[in-house]
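Predict the assembly for these two chains.
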Amino acid sequence: MFRKILFPTDFSEGAMRAIQRFNRDNESEVKECVILHVIDEGKLEDMLNGYSYFYKKEEREMHDIEEKLKEKAMKEMQERAEKCKEMMKAKNIKMLVRVGIPYEEIVKVAEEENVSLILMPSHGTQGFSHELFGSTTMRVLKKTKKPVLIIKTHKEE
Amino acid sequence: MFRKILFPTDFSEGAMRAIQRFNRDNESEVKECVILHVIDEGKLEDMLNGYSYFYKKEEREMHDIEEKLKEKAMKEMQERAEKCKEMMKAKNIKMLVRVGIPYEEIVKVAEEENVSLILMPSHGTQGFSHELFGSTTMRVLKKTKKPVLIIKTHKEE
């Protein structure tokens, strides 16, 4: 049994395929699974620039958009939570939404939650199949001290 | 329970630390563990050049050295087999010695044996701690379609 698994997800097809493969190959139960979604602060700034016509004060703007995105992410997570729990054979599920640079938040949460494993898809949301790895996955791999299970999420040839 | 794990080992300290960490974090049993040692054909050629004073025929030379290295590797493996079995909580152990390019053989054996996971230390025998990853680990990660569990084997700061 794995004590505690961190599953960072961008809700992409790749991330869900990673869980499917984990499920196919792992017959043991997981005590706790921490599902983490990181709202990319870089993308948040891009959105800010897009929405700035409708707002007067920049701070207010930032706060509003952040809150809306967090709410949306939490909703998406809750919709997937039961499926994740079942697929991972996890006894408990914890859901987290953070704002920041994705790989930094993943590494931080892994330490804070003292997980025994980080489950990463080889490719995330960008899905550039010509790339060898998603850049977030590569950065997490370099920075964390925790074991990382990389699941290939390319479609089989 | 993991069905079948491939554990490529160069008998280095890093590789043994990877097993220790795997053991610490994983409470489930492993049905079968395939321990693989690859004799690097590049290094074999280097040795050939070194020993060529003592031999007349190059083919004979190659064959002799290869046989001796295989024998030595198998012996080292047998010495570690019981410890690996115990640490991995593995029901069965299979030992393989191959000659070739390490990452290529690892990827090949993973397919041939249809393993459910490849367990790789982040750093192998070279132990250049300034490097982010061992080159064999990096190449396996890029080439295989199997899930890869990367265990950080740097000494904790």
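Chain A touches chain B at residues 1-3, 21-22, 25-29, 116-117, 132-133, 141-142, 144-152, 154, 156 (CB under 8 Å). Chain A has a mean pLDDT of 80.
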